[in-house]
Write a structure and sequence with these properties.
The complex is a heterodimer of chains A (about 280) and B (about 60).
Chain A lengths: L17 H9 L28 H11 L7 E5 L3 H6 L6 E3 L5 H15 L6 E7 H7 L1 H9 L5 E6 L34 H7 L4 E6 L3 H17 L3 E6 L13 H8 L7 E4 L1 H10 L4
Parallel strand pairs in A: 1-2, 1-3, 3-4, 4-6, 5-6
Antiparallel strand pairs in A: 5-7
Helix pairs in contact in A: 2-8, 5-6
Chain B lengths: L2 E5 L9 H5 L6 E4 L4 E4 L9 H5 L5 E5 L1
The chains are: A alpha/beta (about 280), B alpha+beta (about 60).
């Protein structure tokens, strides 16, 4: 990892905006920053256009600050609310077609391992529930079948929030949304169980209510994806705008969902367990 | 019309729980020397998450 990719030409030093200069001088590039160090360094996200109290923005901020190697990480995003935030992210990122994110990440990862065989490059997919579980389900599952070494992170806000509140496959049964006035008729897709049986070596189900645990799990998922195989992180990010909850109660809604469908659940495969034991990195 | 979060530095004990639950990047900074937080008002969207979550009730919204 080197700091060179962010450094500025000395002649342009005065012309660069303050935000960029802060990122170069006080970014998380050197030193192992974790979620607990937040507030003491410049975060990789800049002022984003997401709504006030958006839990997706919160989890995006936590994920970006817990990347083990930010200078050598490439984020692959997809259409949705999450893609609005990627313009403000201070590391390499790719916007793919709706649903294609895991296929694009596969190509990126393969070319990077050919081009830089001696360097550790992380490819992280971040997409919403529509891109991961509905439209891109075949690309997502097939990347797990092939054992691609990428991390898939799903922001599950349980509906298509960006287009006005249509029901998605991840919406729980009976939920009434703006464009699903009769309530959803079939149950929520259990993508966590699908990930376990499709070849993921690490899968975790959590919410934004415990952000320190979220950061630790994301870090673990990325480190396991580097050496062992595909990993999957599913985060419940309630949407205050579409679910008509006050923004300050969104964390409480996430906390309440931990009692039923979003109880903390972590799956570690045998190969990943033995890898963690051998490296001595149990957390 | 506009609301911004404001911190009472007497009550703040520097537990950083507001920084960990704020969705806005770089909106709340931690000062390691005084062990207190600082809020950048221009980056605050007044979602009130920090007001609700603060265990010492040190943050409140202020009309601008």
């Amino acid at each position: 990892m080197s700091k060179r990719i962010t450094e500025m030409c000395p002649a342009l030093n005065d012309a660069m905006p303050t935000e960029y200069r802060e990122l170069v001088e006080n970014g998380p590039w050197l030193g192992d920053k974790t979620v607990k160090d937040l507030g003491t360094f410049k975060e990789l996200l800049e002022e984003h256009p997401l709504c006030a109290g958006c839990n997706l923005a919160l989890s995006l901020k936590i994920i970006l600050s817990s990347l083990p190697n930010p200078a050598d990480t490439i984020i692959v995003g997809s259409t949705g609310c999450s893609s609005l935030g990627f313009m403000q992210v201070g590391i390499h990122n790719i916007h793919s077609l709706f649903g294609n994110q895991n296929a694009v990440a596969t190509g990126v990862k393969r070319v990077l391992s050919m081009r830089f065989p001696d360097k550790k490059k992380d490819v992280v997919v971040m997409a919403g529930d529509g891109a991961t579980a509905d439209i891109g389900l075949d690309m997502t599952i097939h990347s797990w079948f092939r054992g691609e070494k990428i991390t898939t992170i799903m922001f599950d806000n349980e509906l298509y929030a960006n287009t006005g509140g249509q029901e998605s496959g991840m919406t729980p049964a009976g939920r009434v949304a703006y464009m699903a006035p009769l309530g959803k008729k079939f149950p929520k897709i259990n993508l966590f169980e699908i990930a376990k049986t499709s070849g993921c070596h690490y899968a975790v189900l959590l919410t934004t209510a415990n952000t320190v645990r979220l950061g630790a799990c994301v870090k673990k998922a990325i480190l396991l994806a580097r050496d062992v195989g595909p990993t999957y992180v599913q985060i419940h990010t309630p949407c205050p705008t579409n679910l008509k909850i006050p923004p300050e109660e969104s964390i409480k809604v996430a906390k309440d969902s931990e009692k039923e469908r979003y109880a903390f659940n972590e799956y570690v495969s045998e190969a990943a367990k033995s890898f963690l034991e051998n490296t001595g990195n149990k957390k | 019309m506009y609301f911004k979060a404001k911190v009472d530095k007497e009550k703040c004990n520097g537990c950083k729980i507001c920084i960990l639950s704020c969705p806005e990047p770089n909106a709340i900074k931690f000062d390691p020397s005084s062990k207190k937080i600082e809020i950048y008002e221009s980056r605050c969207k007044a979602c009130k998450i920090c007001v609700v979550i603060c265990p010492k009730q040190a943050i409140e919204l202020e009309e601008k």
